[in-house]
Amino acid sequence: xxxxxxxxxxxxxxxxxxxxxxxxxxxxxxxxxxxxxxxxxxxxxxxxxxxxxxxxxxxxxxxxxxxxxxxxxxxxxxxxxxxxxxxxxxxxxxxxxxxxxxxxxxxxxxxxxxxxxxxxxxxxxxxxxxxxxxxxxxxxxxxxxxxxxxxxxxxxxxxxxxxxxxxxxxxxxxxxxxxxxxxxxxxxxx
Length: 190
What we know:
Radius of gyration: 18 Å
CATH architecture: Beta Barrel
Helix content: 10-25%
Shape: elongated
Number of domains: 1
Strand content: over 45%
CATH class: Mainly Beta
Strand order of the largest sheet: 1-2-3-5-6-7-8-9
Order of helices and strands: HEHEEEEEEEE
Low-confidence stretches: 86-91
Number of helices: 2
Largest sheet: 8 strands, antiparallel, barrel
């Protein structure tokens, strides 16, 4: 609960500072996300049966008050990843897993020599909900995670941009340790 309060307070402070800027530049975007999960080794029975690869869609809404900084909120939903059991246990024979996440990221941009290209760094917080479904029922695990990444953005014109980011998300939940993610998407600035 403290983390969520810190996240909301940070977002409010950043929003208050950017409202004073002459131009906020709101934008929307959509990304494809490939995620590779690293499960906790002390849950070896889960580790062997759950898929490590997830494909997700990520939708975001942000504002860019300067050419060097932006703040965005996002929602990410993965598709089901189907795993299989090599031996029957109390967890059942067929296991599906999926997750969704929502949170906020801050981006820093560094324009480089080529026109329209910027290197970027990102850091943020997200709430991850990891769901496991099997023959005997389902479990939901909710946990706050920290995210950091690097990438680049190409501004095609004043409205459209393409972005590619590699990101590490440290979740440290009961089952899931972290996610390594690669994202590619587009942005439309109003």
